[in-house]
Amino acid sequence: MKAGQRNFVLSFMLILVLLFTSACSGSGTEKSGGTEGKEGKEGKDEPKNTEPIKIGVLASQTGGLEAYGKQTLRGFELGLEYATNGTNEVAGRKIEFIVEDTETKPEVAVQKATKLLEEDEVDFLVGSSSSGDTLAVLPLAEEYEKIMIVEPAVADSITGSEFNEYIFRTARNSSQDAVAGAAAIAKEGTKIATLAPDYSFGRDGVAAFKEAAEKLGAEVVHEEYADPAATDFTSNIQKIIDQKPDYLFVVWAGANSPWNQISDMKVQEKGIKISTGAPDIAALATMEPLVGMEGFTVYYHDLPQNDVNKWLVEEHKKRFNGELPDLFTPGGMTAAMAIVEALRKTEGDTDSQKLIETMEGMSFDTPKGKMTFREEDHQALQALYAIKLEKKEGVNYPVPVLIRELSPEETAPPIRN
Question: Which residue of 94, 99, 102, 302 is most buried, as measured by CB atoms within 10 A?
């Protein structure tokens, strides 16, 4: 072979070697890349979100429902502790909560909720003490696509005509109260008058009670609505007396209760029996004239018999100088426990749509026993208590004594949304 031909052959072979080496190298890189991609998707977990979960709590720290706000906040803090075994952490994420005072004014509630959503960028809203405040805030939950746990506001319209999919209520609603209240006094031919404050809480409560009572054969012969801030109920009570009902069913919330004037005007001596929902301890102290009354209650500390309530009573007494948990303390605890349970199920994911799917139909433990968010309207189905007010030695107020526990199924309200 000539020198020129030999050089050509050598050059050609060198090119083939280089091409082969390049091809093998390319193949190896492609394979390696494919393996690495697969490991990235299957062999390694995506990094978990470790940012704190933020909860904005709206409560009446001032105003007519200040006591309710205080009870709810105490319960909420204890609920977070109980549900997280003292860590205030779920799925590797710390839980923080920010409290804002609505002042029991709807316009202030909207301002505070907007601040929580925009400035604090909370993942959840909780509240509030007033139905009026809560109804004003509901549209914001939908606008900002954030879950709102309603506690302790009770107006039916919250999970009824004003409902949106971001609303879940751990508080009972007016219809649940009504079913319990009607079960205590309504029967065929009974004539009943009602007294309530003239705003959504009172009007929804009376409407729901009337529906439940009439189903049992009773007749609501008069509805009386008073100024929510009133301290003089003389004219309201006189109108009721004039109707001569068998019972007066009272729907009330707040410190300015009508009990003293009902006593002063000798309503019961005129043959009119009184019935109502047993309120918080401070208001029970004003109900001395109603000893012997049969009605219902949402909660009294020695009625529920379960481990969660036992813990709540013991811890509350330790933390707050021997004070007992009051009417809305377990509700605050329940709201916290519901949030933690939902986050545990979503593994800390706060995506609202995922939370909605998780929470619809979700059952969870509470100081009042098992509750379930009804899928259709997100109302928590829960127990209430038929009671009689009695005097007990060593207690300076009439005590709600259990007649029987009304089951979640028994007190399930109509779906109104």
Answer: 102
